[in-house]
Amino acid sequence: MNHIDPSVTVDSSVKIGYFSVIEKDVKLGANVIIGNRVTIHEGTVIGDNTTIADGAVLGKSPKPAKTSTVKLSDSIPALEIGEEVTIGANCVVYRGAKIGSSTLIADLASVRENVEIGNYVIVGRGVTVENFVKIGDRTKIQSNSYITAYTTLEDHVFIAPCVTTTNDNFMGRTEERFDKIKGATVKKGARVGGASIILPGIVIEEETFIAAGALVTKNTEPKTLVKGVPAKFVRMVDERELL
After folding, report:
1. 140-171 pLDDT, tens per residue?
2. What is the C-alpha separation between 26 and 38, in angstroms, rounded?
3. Among 68, 135, 154, 71, which residue's Cα sits nearest to residue 97?
4. Residue 164 dihedral angles phi and psi, to the nearest 5°
5. In the prediction, which pLDDT does 179 show?
6. Does domain 1-63+75-138 have CATH number 2.160.10.10?
7. How much is the pLDDT for 57?
8. Which CATH architecture has domain 168-243?
9. For residue 111, with 0-12 CB atoms within 10 Å meaning exposed, 13-18 middle and 19 or more buried, which class applies?
10. Three-class secondary structure of residue 72 per DSSP
11. What angle do CA 115, 48, 159 make, to 5 degrees?
12. Whole-angstrom Cα distance, residue 127 to residue 146?
C-alpha cells in the first residue's frame, strides 16, 4: 500500500511500486517509474521518463548538528530532477539540489542541499556530494569518491574511484577557518586518478591529468601530468588525449 497525497501531480503513465510515500505538492512527469519503499518529500519536481529505484529518499530537508558549520537559509527550494534521470537504490538526495537531465545517481549515493548537477553526469555508487557543490555537464565521478562542500567540477571532468577532496586546512579548529573554507576547482576536461587527495582551495587546470594516489598540494598548469606525494610535474599530456 502506498501513501500519495491528493495534491500530487501524477497521471496514468506513472508506475509506482509498493510501500512508497509521496508528500504534498510533488510533481511527477510522464512515464516516471518509482520503485518500492521510496520516499518523495514535499514539493519535489521530477521530470519525464525518470526512474527511481527501491529505497530512495528524495527532497529530504537538511538538519545539521548543533556543532556543524553549515549555515542554512530560512527557505530551501524544493528538489528538482530533470528528464530521463536514473536515481539508484537507497540514494538520498536533499531538498535544494538541482539535477540535470540524463544524469545517473547510482546506488547508495548521497547528494546534499544547494548542489547543482548538470546534464549527462554520472555520480557513482556510494559517492558523497556535500553542500554548495557545482558539477558540470558530462562529468563522471566514480564509486566511493568524496566531493566536499564548496567544490566545483566543470564540464567533462573525470574523477576516478575513492578520490578525496578537502576544504579546511584547520580541520575544525580556530575561528579563522570560517572565512577560508573552500574545496577544489577542477576545470574542464581534467582527470583525477584513483585514491588521489586534493587539498583545500586547489585549482586543477583544464586537461590536467593527476596520476593515481597523488597528493595535490599546489595548483596545476593546464595540460600537465602530475604524480607523487606531493604531486609534481612529470610531462605534458599527449595531444591525442585532449578533448
Report:
1. 999 999 999 999 999 999 999 999 999 998 87
2. 13
3. 135
4. -120, 125
5. 74
6. yes
7. 98
8. 3 Solenoid (2.160)
9. buried
10. coil
11. 35
12. 6
